[in-house]
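Bumping my old thread because nobody answered last time. Still need a sequence for this structure:
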């Protein structure tokens, strides 16, 4: 299934291209929006900005994000599962069983939709992995946690969530944003969106890698995930 997704605000892409931002060391436009990938139901983009201790912009990354298979499966289970809180199989909304079963005509696949969907997908994680994203991803390749020298870069819930209710003139979308401040050196190359601040057992909605953002102690990095629904 092709789940490459695109979007955000077209004006941003036009502006960045018009200013030639990708020709500098600070600005980097990766995987630009393509018309072949604009037909998805859920579209989006990830933007990464980094600033030094003086507040100066030191890096900018903009790329399409990728909704992984696990995220797609969870979205459908949240929307259409009829077994919410069913005591018979213990399978609440977004959960899965350890074995395949068929209960009352509803198939439950043990490989679909990781984690229990009791929380929103509003947790942003960053990491050091550089291998291309796969639709089967369920975790970051090398997630930054408190065990790293930059312990303040561990996953956290988005600080701001901005909703736009769609109409004929506007697009329905949500923008999730979180700023991390490094306490040590790190080169950030990936980000993911999860439904829990607990690494083990959480569900991944989306994942993307980008050219490395080099941080020194005191530098900040802001990750912004945007999702639009429909056209």
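Sorry it took so long. Here it is:
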């Amino acid at each position: 299934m092709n789940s490459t997704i695109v979007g955000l605000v077209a004006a941003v892409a036009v502006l960045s291209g018009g200013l030639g931002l990708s020709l500098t060391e600070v600005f980097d436009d990766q995987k630009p929006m393509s018309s072949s990938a604009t037909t998805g139901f859920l579209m989006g983009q990830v933007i990464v900005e980094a600033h030094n201790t003086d507040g100066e912009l030191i890096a900018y990354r903009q790329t399409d994000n990728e909704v992984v298979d696990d995220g797609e499966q969870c979205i459908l289970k949240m929307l259409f599962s009829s077994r919410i809180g069913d005591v018979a199989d213990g399978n609440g909304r977004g959960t899965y069983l350890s074995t395949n079963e068929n209960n009352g005509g509803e198939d439950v696949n043990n490989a679909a939709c990781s984690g229990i969907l009791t929380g929103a997908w509003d947790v942003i994680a960053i990491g050091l992995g550089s291998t291309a994203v796969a639709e089967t991803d369920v975790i970051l390749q090398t997630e930054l946690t408190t065990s790293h020298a930059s312990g303040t870069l561990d996953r956290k819930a988005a600080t701001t969530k901005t909703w736009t209710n769609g109409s004929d003139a506007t697009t329905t979308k949500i923008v999730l944003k979180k700023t991390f401040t490094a306490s040590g050196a790190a080169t950030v190359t990936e980000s993911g969106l999860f439904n829990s601040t607990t690494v083990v057992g959480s569900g991944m909605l989306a994942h993307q890698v980008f050219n490395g953002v080099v941080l020194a102690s005191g530098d900040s990095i802001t990750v912004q995930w945007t999702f639009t629904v429909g056209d």
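Helices lie at 10-18, 69-80. Let me know if any region looks off to you.
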